[in-house]
Amino acid sequence: MDIQCLTVKLLRHKITEILIPHRFQWSAKRMHHFKNLVHTIRFTSPADSDTMEYKMIGPEHSDQVIEHLRHNFFADEPLNKAAGLCQNGSSCAELEDHCAEAIHHRMSVMAVDVKDAGTCKIAGVVLNGILKPDDTAKALEKLDSSGDAHFRKIFEMLHRHNLKHNLFEHFDVESMFDVRILSVDSSYRGQGIANELVKRSVAVARKNGFRLMKADATGIFSQKIFRSNGFEVFSEQPYCKYTDENGKVILPVEAPHIKMQLLYKAICGDEQDDNAKTH
């Protein structure tokens, strides 16, 4: 255990010593002591340390990023889970192709933990792509030749919803910055990494002159993160209302995830984001 983790563990033990014997004796002095300890833990957490670096993802990182996704996003994402698309650590050829396409656009960002000398572990990634007006219709047509029924089930819902609720027509834009996948390693969750990845994606979109960003947020946690970064809900698809001709729910997503949200964020070209550095 490194010194930082040991420090946090000792501080948490100290909080327990304060809370348990004196849970009904909250003097002003004890409350002040408790607040100081909580503040110390917040600013000693791994997410706030100097070991986390944020970098642009290039094609040379593709294998490492896909491996991260196999052990996190592929099995954990609500729609993937509901469709039984893949298990933790397993591969999914069509989903990996979808990810590789986003990486090829060179708009994606990763969080890398470099605390161990000579090693760089991916703590999280956000895969972003460039979306043109005809891309979604073409992707829907391409699904007809897909050999993976689970993959088709997921992306047919996403593509049809985007075609029905057309952001291109509504905002009169020729291209959009598409936030496609947001994933954080399970051992790093709860540390603000996903939020930081979205912030940096906004900076990348602004730097490259995009007027509009979009995201298909399929889970409650990603929806909260996007909204906290200024994204607004354009339309929603409740999972319980996405049914086949017999009224059976096609994607029985587990609670607390109850709907997919199509979110957008308009970007002002002259606005500066001093908090997000992309390099």
From TrEMBL:
* UniProt organism field: Drosophila suzukii (Spotted-wing drosophila fruit fly)
- Name-wise, this protein is Arylalkylamine N-acetyltransferase 1 isoform X1
**Pfam families in the record:** Acetyltransf_1
Q: Which gene encodes it?
A: AANATL7
**An example Gene Ontology molecular-function term:** aralkylamine N-acetyltransferase activity
N-acetyltransferase domain segment(s)? 182-231
